[in-house]
Specification:
This protein is an all-alpha fold. It has two domains: 30 residues; 86 residues, no CATH class. Keywords: Signal.
């Protein structure tokens, strides 16, 4: 009996701790703004057909990507993709930078995982 009495406060503490830590975890996992997710889904649908099935697959795809890489890294990779198409010295810097290549590789790995899971 004495053990059961001392466990009550511990359980209450654990429940309170889980309750306070859950919102921060959800925010960490959902750090992509809705507009970025929508933009990805629209682009994905253009590439994969504009059907109900492609909405589901493309939505799944951005969710998988968001679970793998943080939004800041996603923005970096998208910037590298965009800027590497520029035909100037600036574009060359984005095409040849090791940091840019690493960000792009992270995105490509996340997209490959999303392809496997969602399509």
């Amino acid at each position: 009996m004495r053990c059961a009495v001392s466990v009550g406060p511990i359980v209450a503490f654990c429940v309170a701790l889980i309750g306070t830590s859950a919102p921060s975890r959800a925010e960490d996992l959902n750090d992509y703004p809705t507009s970025a997710r929508a933009e990805y889904v629209f682009g994905c649908m253009k590439a994969n057909g504009e059907s109900r099935q492609s909405i589901a697959q493309c939505s799944c795809s951005i969710d998988v990507i968001a679970s793998i890489i943080p939004y800041e890294r996603y923005v970096t990779a998208e910037t590298v993709l965009s800027m590497s198409q520029v035909r100037s010295n600036l574009g060359t810097q984005f095409r040849t930078s090791e940091q840019a290549a690493n960000a792009l590789n992270d995105l490509r790995r996340a997209q490959a995982e999303a392809e496997v899971r969602c399509f």
